[in-house]
Amino acid sequence: MAAVLFGMPAQVGAEELIVDNTAPFVQVTGPWVSTTLTPGFSGADYLFRPASAGDATVFWPFPTTSTPGRYEVFARWTSGPNRATNALYWVSSATGTTSITQNQQLNGGTWQSLGSFDFRPGQSEGVTLSDRSDGVVVADAIRWVGPGAQAAAPVPAPTATPPPATDPNGTWTVSLQPVDLHAGPEARTDVLSKIPQFSYLQVLSYADDWAYVYNPRARGTAYVPSALLGPSDPPPAWVTAPPPAAVASVEAMARSVGNAQIAFYPVDDKFAYVGRLDNNLPILVHDRVQAADGSTWYRVDQGYLAAASVRLPRTPDRLLAGRWIDADLSEPAMLTAYDGDRIVLSTLAIKGTIANQTPTGTFTIQRRVADETMDSGTLGIPADGPGGYHLEHVLFTQYFSADGASIHYNYWSSNFGYSGSHGCLGLDRADSEFLWNWASIGTPVVIHA
Q: Which residues pair with 136 in a beta bridge?
């Protein structure tokens, strides 16, 4: 039996432990993104990160409640054509640190062995995954199989049956309240997903008090208590239409804009929306598609987003060598960190107002202050007067102009992408801290409208 560590560690007789990425003691560094799009993962979700310079990592520590000894270590991921072929794992054990690469385009949804190692609890030993790779890296779960456990072999993911076409004789219904969709006609079976009130479901058959239904949102089948369903007319044609073909492949990181509503099909209809993203969340854009009404949408891991809800970095007029920063002030304003021609980070930034505009041109980082107080009195403006300010503990400030324009953590506003500063570029904490560790004095900063 395996102890699955989604929360605090649990001790079992056989030394077989699974540590999911959601376990509270797993250490996530850098802007990894949570998703559930590709099946085959362990636990509630998995994390992903596009290829980068190795600044973002996930560390699964060897559980402190475990018995010291020799364990075989397994990793799990979800596969896809955009995945890394050289995902880099480091296994830190009693004998040192060993690097192992895995091709995440293959063997998704199974446990893949990284080798056998000697581990000691409480010694900062475990497994680290880096984002230094040639494609998208997936961080899901790590499995330790030790003394007393059955010899471990790769465990295949459940085989999915092809989703059925809708039954022309099936009865269309809607959910009368938010509903859990189950793998079988019993409440104790696995919950496959949760759907909101008034979601379309087509009843294919019944098993006692349960309905076997086709769920057009997931294009698959599940079971739901029949008492939670109400009658409905057939849904609009788009509900059962196949996904639209891609107009262009994108495969790039972007940021969500405003109250970004996620749709399971690219149509502006309240029944299509399945969730929302807050402003300035990192998203991986796969394709650009065109809706039936001619509007542009983007396919992301969570579904589809209208073009107005997505900000992709625009190609700069020129590229610089080494590490440099591009700030595009066109709203929503976006700051992008490059290593040569490769994007390392892109994020929305608060920019200057009309009265206090962010300067444009080419600059370099001149000085850096980790934690400071910003006071308008240094500019001749009383802190308690019109346009004045006094802000303590402004973190990760990197000045790039002689008159005080800088990149820094902007904790007093979340209006990322739009005007609101006295000329600085304000970022959220995670991104400002990343740039603080990534950039240095002399790093070029190119700002343009």
A: 83
